[in-house]
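thought: user wants a sequence for this fold. calling inverse folding tool.
action: design(structure=
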């Protein structure tokens, strides 16, 4: 999507997009066509229900050939969520050049928040992953937002966020044969080098360097792979001094077979690196918009495959923090990589940790495909993230870590902890396992995006595949606390 910055002008080759509430009996678009359109409205020929698209030809009475009137439903019930529903229709399916009358979509909403929702939603629904198709999508949506308000900086900011979401989706949609752990590391280095901001640095550790750090849990997952692991560490200094950084930790299992605890269905297991892709997306949005926060990104990247050396059930691993882990299931591998990543982040001086992971099928059973599960040891930190998620209309729901599930994690007879507690309360069991690697004094939030990172059956006509979930929520959270 390309945004045309003619906010107070209307390109004559574009089609006009106008919102209408059910209570409205007329529109004011252009005196040359208003009378005819208002007759259609009076005759009930213009649908006003939420999301309804009405296509009207102007018959050369104005320079713009087409007007699209989008129903906004009842004004008294209008909300940012309804704005987003209406905005889903504003795509290149209408025309590849559109001018949106911003003020007609406001009702009682704040103009800045409304413009932000329009930019993010229009771009999100313009997305398609066609990198590997011989026939590419030829049309590019060119969109202008018409208003007398000063929205230039706002549009630039959220266009950067929208691009970061799309780059996240591209990474998750890319198949494993084109994106292994080293490829992800190279992408991270390329991303950092593309920033004009000089306060961003990246370090990539190879297998030997990971071994030197004694990351036995992370390396255990990699045992069955012919592709070496990579530990990606990025720092962004947005404040005058680099102190009290927030570390975003992303699970990046580039493909998950389940190991010897073999999965029955591996389709779309390329998405098991969704957490790693997400934290790179958040970083991109933060750096491009120069937020005044200190952020670290830590990604332990590997695949989980099988050969004669692969990890076995009953094996015992020693993690970076020296805790021993009995392997109950080799398919509970993501938490092993995150365990060492959490320890590494804290050794880098971070006491605020947010990890994102496509971690458990159990969270999908509990919350479905449109709600992310959240766990924490610090309620205040999670409340700030929940506030951001509500503002960004990304559903997030807190789940518990109980003493009972902690006891189950510690129930092994041969090691300190075990990596699986079974199907019951499986998402909480995984979170309780990760909690074992959070040091006293560290604030920690765990986001399980297993259900929300990939849309295999989209419910709202969005593109099949990666969702980019939580990029805009965490961007907003970091913006709020800067």
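)
observation: tool returned 482 residues.
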């Amino acid at each position: 999507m390309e945004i045309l910055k003619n906010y107070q002008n209307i390109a004559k080759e574009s089609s006009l997009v106008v919102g209408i509430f059910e209570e409205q009996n007329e529109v004011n678009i252009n005196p040359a066509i208003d009378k005819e359109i208002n007759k259609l409205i009076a005759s009930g020929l213009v649908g006003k229900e939420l999301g309804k698209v009405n296509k009207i030809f102007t018959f050369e009475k104005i320079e713009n050939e087409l007007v699209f009137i989008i129903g906004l439903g009842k004004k008294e019930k209008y909300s940012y969520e309804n704005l987003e529903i209406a905005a889903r229709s504003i795509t290149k399916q209408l025309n590849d050049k559109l001018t949106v009358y911003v003020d007609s979509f406001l009702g009682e909403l704040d103009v800045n928040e409304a413009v932000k929702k329009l930019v993010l939603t229009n771009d999100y629904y313009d997305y398609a992953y066609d990198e590997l198709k011989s026939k590419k999508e030829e049309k590019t949506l060119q969109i202008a937002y018409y208003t007398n308000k000063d929205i230039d900086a706002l549009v630039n900011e959220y266009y950067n966020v929208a691009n970061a979401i799309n780059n996240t989706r591209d990474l998750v949609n890319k198949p494993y044969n084109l994106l292994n752990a080293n490829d992800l590391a190279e992408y991270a280095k390329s991303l950092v080098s593309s920033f004009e901001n000089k306060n961003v640095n990246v370090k990539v550790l190879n297998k030997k360097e990971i071994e030197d750090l004694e990351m036995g849990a992370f390396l255990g997952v990699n045992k069955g792979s012919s592709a070496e692991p990579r530990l990606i560490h990025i720092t962004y200094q947005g404040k005058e001094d680099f102190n009290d950084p927030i570390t975003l930790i992303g699970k990046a299992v580039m493909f998950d077979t389940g190991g010897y605890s073999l999965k029955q269905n591996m389709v779309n297991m390329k998405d098991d690196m969704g957490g790693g892709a997400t934290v790179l997306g958040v970083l991109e949005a933060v750096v491009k918009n120069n937020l005044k926060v200190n952020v670290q990104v830590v990604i332990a990247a590997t695949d989980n495959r099988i050969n004669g050396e692969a990890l076995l059930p009953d094996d015992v691993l020693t993690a970076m923090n020296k805790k021993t882990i009995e392997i109950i299931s080799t398919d509970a591998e993501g938490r092993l990589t995150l365990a060492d990543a959490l320890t590494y982040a804290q050794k880098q001086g971070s006491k605020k940790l947010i990890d994102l992971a496509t971690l458990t099928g159990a969270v999908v059973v509990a919350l479905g495909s449109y709600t992310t599960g959240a766990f924490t040891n610090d309620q205040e930190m999670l409340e700030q993230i929940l506030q951001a998620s509500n503002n960004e209309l990304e559903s997030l729901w807190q789940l518990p870590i109980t003493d009972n599930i902690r006891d189950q994690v510690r129930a092994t007879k041969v090691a300190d902890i075990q990596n699986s507690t079974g199907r019951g309360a499986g998402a909480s069991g995984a979170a309780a396992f990760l909690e074992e690697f959070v040091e006293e004094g560290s604030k920690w939030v765990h986001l399980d995006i297993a259900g929300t990172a990939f849309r295999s059956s989209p419910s709202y006509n969005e593109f099949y595949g990666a969702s980019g979930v939580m990029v805009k929520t965490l961007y907003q959270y970091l913006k709020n606390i800067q």
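thought: summarizing for user.
answer: Here is the designed sequence. The domain at 2-150 is CATH 3.40.220.10 (Leucine Aminopeptidase, subunit E; domain 1).
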